[in-house]
Write a structure and sequence with these properties.
The complex is a heterodimer. Chain A has 2 domains: about 10-100, Elongation Factor Tu (Ef-tu), domain 3 (Beta Barrel); about 105-240, Nucleotide-binding domain of ferredoxin-NADP reductase (FNR) module (Rossmann fold). Helices cover about 25% and strands about 30% of the residues of chain A. Chain A has 8 helices and 15 strands. In chain A, the strands form 3 sheets. Chain A has a 7-stranded mixed beta sheet, sandwiched between helices. A 6-stranded antiparallel beta sheet of chain A has the order 4-3-6-1-2-5. A two-stranded antiparallel ribbon of chain A has the order 13-14. In chain B, a hairpin with a 2-residue loop joins strand 2 (about 25-30) and strand 3. Chain B folds into 2 domains: about 1-60 and about 80-200, Aspartate Aminotransferase, domain 2, CATH 3.40.640; about 205-335, no CATH class. By secondary structure, chain B is of the alpha+beta class. Chain B has helices spanning about 10-20, 100, 105-110, 120-125, 175-180, 195-200, 210-220, 225, 235-240, 285-305, 315-320, 325-335; strands at about 5, 25-30, 35-40, 65-75, 80, 90-95, 125-130, 160-165, 165-170, 190, 245-255, 255-265. The two termini of chain B are about 40 Å apart.
């Protein structure tokens, strides 16, 4: 009896497709095999490898919350061969999924704390999983603040959910677009995310900060949070190193002693400080 | 404790015959087309006479250059996946050097440290190693600086040491004893022999534990960038390396069917870490060269309790721009 093939994906049927922004789509995926669906469980922060059969595999986070059962969602931008292959798919088509892989955001340790989410562009999807997970357990957390920015109004993803969060009294949503990215109807902020965070000057008291964005957002926001008094152990991010296997073998995401696919993708700023800046 | 025998040349002939009679192929160094490489052989007469090492390593016996991990056929709204059984041919690798025999453990560490890789394991399970100790060396060799030696038994099932009576044969493992049992008459209990006197002397060039201890502090040192100035990022060092395990996954498909393939890759390639966004965490060749050294001499010890280098020197011999791993490590050790 041979061992299991760790590279063999689950087959998933596309149940719904949402156009989020130019070139950005969300797939809702359901397991083809009922037993696989039954056996599947994940925690927020984990990721997977998604197959467009014929084109290959790409790594994305699981963008939905584990509190929402029966499906997973992924959000991707069409930039290369695999994402172009995925973008060609229609509702009812089959894609592959391997996972869940990697570590998790330790939200069960955050009960009674304020949560501050800071993110930009297509980096909202990994935090969207955490946001919905925490909103579905709303009474376990205190204030929830979300600072989200994109290049332009059109580039904001999850537009319907942003509207929902904006209207919820138990969420403080601050949306911003880069200068020049606003429309005449835009009522949110205009300015780069770190600048908006600086103006907001959130208190570090009893607060966990989750930062995910393009490298420039992370580079500018981390020192800012430190200056505001956030401890390095209270700031979390999730890395997006290039991966092939997802299971700690192919070597691609190796950064210092860490395999981002196994020891990450979730790291505190304190843990990042132990790694070479190769992410 | 190994059982030590003498094995005459005639007995080695008989052993080769018995191994093939048992349904196993023998891969051994041969001189063909001006290169010394592992190839299938029938008898010891086909084995290269005068070699220090093969150019390529023996890792292909357990980790092929390209292998299929799955295949599929496609129809509208339907994918039929095929999970292949690994094509593991019972194999005896003969005549590799002790350094290289020690390299399989470094591959095993990565392929099985967490989840288990059935493709690698099926081949490793079917593999036996008869290494031959070294009576010669060249300037690229540095096994004794990384815990090995010209007569090291690590990773071999049987280790042969050339001797006036043919070979001194140390039968080291159950797999080795199974090979011995195929042609038991040839294995004659050996008298006490000074094995070291039969082997070449390879003095240690640097203090590896001290180097490993000092690497974290050397991360931002200029020497890595300087050493890599001539590196062209070709990846030859990784492809000939018996322990380099990093791989790529690629798709080969035609619209109706396809397959997913694993192939060797190298951290020395600029595309290795390139993000879809264009951001590259290791943006220059110096950073990529440093990754190669650190992965083998810092991260491997930390993660797996062993080195990712056996000091075989294949990378040095293969490098088209004459980068010499031993010299570069020596420079780091002295800096």
């Amino acid at each position: 009896m041979s061992e299991a093939n760790i590279y063999l994906p689950h087959l998933m049927r596309i149940a719904a497709i949402t156009e989020e922004a130019p070139g950005v789509r969300t797939f809702r995926l359901e397991f083809v095999d009922a037993a696989a669906a039954e056996a599947f469980a994940f925690r927020t922060g984990q990721f997977g490898l998604y197959s467009a059969f014929g084109d290959g595999e790409s790594t994305f986070c699981i963008a939905s919350s584990p509190t929402r059962k029966g499906y997973i969602e992924c959000t991707f931008r069409e930039v290369g061969r695999v994402t172009a292959g995925l973008a060609d798919k229609e509702v009812g088509d089959i894609v592959g999924f391997r996972g869940p892989y990697g570590n998790v955001f330790p939200i069960d340790q955050w009960q009674g704390k304020n949560l501050l989410f800071i993110t930009g562009g297509i980096a909202l999807p990994p935090l969207r999983s955490v946001i919905w997970n925490c909103l579905d357990l709303r009474d376990q957390f205190k204030d929830i603040t979300i600072v989200y920015g994109a290049r332009s109004v059109n580039d904001l993803v999850y537009k319907a959910e942003l509207k929902e969060w904006e209207q919820r009294p138990d969420v403080n949503l601050v949306c911003t677009v880069d200068p020049g990215g606003e429309t005449p109807e835009w009522t949110g902020k205009v300015g780069f995310v770190p600048l908006i965070v600086e103006q907001l000057a959130p208190s570090p008291d009893n607060t966990i900060a989750l930062v995910c964005g393009p490298p420039i957002l992370i580079k500018l926001t981390m020192p800012l949070l430190r200056k505001l008094g956030f401890g390095a152990e209270s700031i979390f991010t999730t890395l997006e190193n290039r991966m092939k296997c997802g299971v700690g073998k192919c070597g691609r995401c190796n950064t210092g002693k860490s395999y981002v696919c196994k020891d990450g993708p979730v790291y505190t700023l304190e843990q990042l400080g132990q790694l070479p800046a190769e992410y | 404790m190994a059982d030590t025998y003498q094995l005459s040349s005639a007995s080695l002939d008989a052993l080769f015959t018995a191994i093939q009679g048992d349904g196993r192929r023998i891969l051994a160094p041969t001189d063909r087309d001006g290169r010394t490489e592992l190839n299938p052989v029938r008898n010891p007469g086909e084995v290269a006479r005068d070699y220090i090492q093969t150019t390529m390593s023996a890792k292909a016996a357990v980790f092929p250059k390209v292998e299929q991990l799955l295949s599929y056929t496609l129809a509208k709204g339907q994918v039929d996946l095929v999970d292949p059984e690994p094509q593991a041919v019972p194999t005896v690798v003969f005549g590799i050097r002790p350094c290289e025999a020690g390299g399989f453990a470094a591959l095993d560490a990565v392929f099985n440290w967490d989840t288990r890789d059935k493709f690698f394991n099926a081949r490793l399970d079917q593999l036996a190693v008869i290494a031959v100790g070294c009576t010669r060396r060249d300037e690229a060799c540095f096994c004794t600086s990384v815990g090995g030696g010209p007569g090291s038994v690590k990773g071999s099932d049987i280790l042969l040491t050339p001797w006036s009576e043919g070979f001194l044969a140390e039968v080291l493992t159950d797999k080795g004893r199974a090979l011995q049992a195929l042609a038991p008459k040839g294995f004659i209990p050996a008298p006490a022999v000074d094995k070291a006197a039969l082997l070449v002397d390879v003095p240690a060039a640097f203090d590896q534990p001290a180097l490993t201890a000092k690497l974290p502090a050397l991360f931002d040192a200029e020497l890595w960038g300087n050493q890599a100035l001539r590196c062209i990022g070709c990846g030859a060092c990784a492809f000939v390396c018996p322990t380099c395990v990093c791989f790529d996954l690629q798709e080969e498909a035609d619209g109706q069917s396809g397959r997913r393939l694993r192939s060797w890759d190298s951290c020395g390639h600029s595309l290795f870490t390139l993000h879809a966004s264009g951001h590259n965490p290791r943006a220059n060749q110096g950073a990529r060269w440093r990754q190669r050294v650190y992965h083998k001499f810092s991260y491997y010890p930390d993660r797996y309790g062993m080195l990712g280098c056996v000091g075989c020197g294949k990378c040095t011999r293969a490098c088209p721009v004459d980068m010499n791993l031993q010299e570069h490590l020596l420079e780091a050790a002295r800096s």
